[in-house]
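pasting SbsA Ig-like domain-containing protein for the record, 473 residues
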Amino acid sequence: MSTEPRPTRRTRSRRRRGRAFAGAFAIVVGVLAVVGVTAAAASVVQGPRVTATNVDPAAAVAASGSRVNITLSQSLEEVDPSQVTITPATPFAVDTSGRSVGVRFTLPLWDETDYTVRIDGLRGLGGGPEATATVDFTTPALTEYLLQRGDDEDTVFRTGIDGEAAVPVFTHAHIEDFRATGSHLVFSVRTENDEAALIVTDRDGADARELALPGEGFVSNLQSADRGEIIGYTFSDADLEADGARESVLYTASLQESAAGDDPTPVEIEGSDPRVADWRFVPDTDSVLLLSFDGTLLLAGAHGEDATALGSALGIDGIARGSSLAVVERLDGLGVVDLTTGTEEPLVEPEGATGPATSVTPLPDGSTIRASAVLEDDGSPTGRTAVDLVAADGGVVSLTEVADTDAVLQTCVSPSARYAAVLVAPDAIGNPYDTYYLPLPETVETRIIAVDDAEQLVALAGSSISWCQTPPR
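structre below
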């Protein structure tokens, strides 16, 4: 006799409903599967479609390394650089990851310019037809900062390329120098007690805070890296006669809020003279190029690690943005050092008769902007100063000529090298210097010149334009 319970009418009803639900669920799953397969097949048939794009035109103007990111509807085959066209042309690198493709600009872009990034031949990993992605954007007007020293207080202004509508962003009784990064301004000042201080603000001059210094003393040769919100400077103790006193020691520091309480980091190279006569951040790396007091040129990591000696030198003229080529002054003349290989070539001689260059500003394409004396036919100096664009093959294009009554203090270029800035002291003989630790003539002007056609756009009252990577000398 069976002991199994016999199903009741209610139990049989539940079983029938259960079988009906299971059947309906199976139908729904089947329908969804068919829809999914159909959608996937349709996606493959259509090819990749752009679902999102991202670009920061303001960042692209300010520094190298900005990107256009494009997200598509399918995972992609690797994109080759030959598939990418940028108009107007500019150097770039491309990378592919899953459904995303990124185009990285290796140099800053021109201001107030319409750009188009086009990628042809995009293919999904699952096959199907090719597709094209296009991104259009316009870069904004360029913004720069200038320092104006006054009788009672000094002011840093923000202005456009035309010099109109200048806005004061920071005022202090004594500003020695300043630098701009992508997100911050940093000011080297002297306090009312004649002590050094570094004050950091945002780019509007707000949220001021003070950076820690190694001690009481003097800050000089303030510089900023193109990216990473990193600054560097040389520091000397106030009492250089004291035991263990530091003299011209190179320090780096982060301007990020997260590093606000951190101590500055000394750049220490084992076995090298700790005193630094000159130095530069190496673009697009965390390395520094420095010249020690004993005349040794050294390439090292951000903290002095992995140092490589590059011979003896008298000075560092500069490193072009987006480049590894440094122009250095050797005992036998100017040379161009490739910091990736250590190889060196003499700096190309300009065509025509010019005097020795007093400054050389390297550009990413291998050309340079040089300030030099204008000579008479017999080789004697005229007193005038020529500022020329010297091509990589030695061809010369005159950008401007400064009168013999004036003095050229500094030459530098905008991030994209579209413009040159020439710092001039008018009426040099009757224009005395102030008494700052970084002295400047009482009257200075910064002349902005378009490099492509040598047109002088404006003359701005002030010095230390934020395009420059080093202080005036």
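Residues 356-473 form one domain.
The CA atoms of residues 56 and 406 lie 41 Å apart.
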